[in-house]
Structure formats: C-alpha cells, structure tokens
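Recap from last week: sequence in, structure out.
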Amino acid sequence: MSSGPEHYREAERLVAESYQNGGTQTDDALFLAEAQVHATLALVAAQIEVGYAISAAGGGSPFPSVEWDRALAPDDAPAVPTSVERADELADRLGIPGGEAAP
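Predicted structure tokens:
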C-alpha cells in the first residue's frame, strides 16, 4: 500500500511519461488513466489526514472517521461501532427517547 505522497509522485511521473514516451495515443491514454487513479488516491489520503488532524485538534471530523477506520483497518482488527451505533449509545446515556436506529 502506498502513502498519499507516494501516489502523488507516481501520478506526476506517469503524466510526464505520457508526454515523453513517444508511444501511441493508446499508450498515452493508459499512462494518463493510471495517473488519474494515483492522483485520486493521493487526494483521498490527504483528505483522511486532514480529517484526522481536525479531529485530533478537537474540532470534530468532516467525515465519519469510524467508518474510515473500519475501511482502512486490517481484517483481524477489532470491530468498532458505526456512527449510528455510537449515536444510539449516546442517546441512551442521555436518556433521549427514540434513539434506536431505524431498521
């Protein structure tokens, strides 16, 4: 698995390669398609890092980090509750009626 900066550098390399390889339009399109995938993965990694930084600074998170934790965790990682499960638990602790998630 690559880091965000590694994906970014690979995207830059592939774009440069598409201009320098002297290949066919099909070759260039393949280089650019692969570059787009790496650029997208770099952007996702950057957004995750920003989200965790905001969360760590006490500012909340712009996306549900529990779901990202689950998506990024290895298969043998302990299960973590979903946002809905956490909201239900909080509602129960605060005595808010109807805190159960809809089926």
